[in-house]
């Protein structure tokens, strides 16, 4: 999959909130990096070659809880449809209608319109919430298993059989770095530093060792300023 000449990257630095650690590393958005190349089996092969593990393909419903992964980085590839993704803040109500459409969330963050072909590399600790999905469809896991890996003898074959409908995304995480949790905000208050210290993978999930990927976009950073910011919350 040759994408080396098609790289546009948008970077978003998200400060910690009262409930969300976020990260010293920027959220990376590669708009249309995989335009017309949204083949789950081929993307899976690219992940594998770069030491990232494909774990799921989900079809998203109209909205979901804002959440983050406290000890692992994540890559999300949009395979079909369109949606809005809000990054960087927690919901402040358990009512999804209120937290999505009536402002029941923390202040700040960034909202990005996502479409098929977009790629997001999300540092550990950065909150995200997918909503306003189109075409509308019910939430569903489209890959065999429970969303913690492709549970099939022939993983590539299983991914070739995935029927993309509605707004779907494919998720991968660095190999041998544990599993993802589903933290909604507040779980790591008092220990944000542990999330900020999650090691940087050696390779970008799709761009490998290229400087356009995390090798060049994520830098080794001191945590002192971020700790000072946290102390003021």
TrEMBL record:
Tell me the ranges covered by the Cupin type-1 domain, including all copies. Answer: 67-144
Gene3D superfamilies per record: Jelly Rolls (2.60.120.10)
Kindly list any coiled-coil regions of this protein. Answer: none
Q: Which domain of life is it from?
A: Eukaryota
| Spans through the membrane | none
Q: What is this protein called?
A: Cupin type-1 domain-containing protein
Q: Which species does the entry assign this protein to?
A: Lithohypha guttulata
């Amino acid at each position: 999959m040759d994408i080396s000449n098609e790289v546009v990257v948008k970077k978003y630095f998200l400060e910690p909130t009262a409930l969300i650690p976020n990260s010293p590393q920027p959220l990376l958005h590669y708009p249309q990096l995989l335009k017309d190349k949204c083949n789950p089996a081929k993307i899976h092969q690219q992940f594998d070659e770069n030491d990232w593990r494909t774990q799921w393909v989900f079809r998203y419903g109209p909205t979901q809880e804002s959440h983050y992964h406290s000890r692992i980085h994540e890559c999300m590839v949009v395979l079909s449809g369109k949606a809005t993704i809000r990054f960087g803040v927690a919901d402040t109500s358990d009512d999804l209608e209120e937290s999505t459409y009536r402002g029941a969330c923390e202040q700040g963050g960034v909202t990005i319109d996502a479409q098929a072909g977009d790629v997001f590399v999300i540092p550990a600790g950065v909150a995200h919430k997918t909503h306003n999905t189109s075409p509308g469809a019910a939430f569903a896991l489209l890959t065999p298993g429970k969303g913690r890996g492709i549970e099939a003898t022939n993983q590539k074959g299983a991914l070739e059989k995935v029927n993309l409908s509605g707004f779907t995304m494919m998720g991968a995480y660095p190999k041998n770095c544990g599993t993802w949790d589903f933290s909604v905000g507040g779980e790591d208050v008092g220990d944000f530093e542990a999330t900020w210290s999650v090691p940087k993978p050696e390779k970008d999930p799709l761009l490998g060792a290229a400087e356009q990927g995390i090798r060049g976009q994520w830098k080794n950073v001191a945590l002192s300023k971020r700790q000072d910011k946290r102390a003021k919350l």
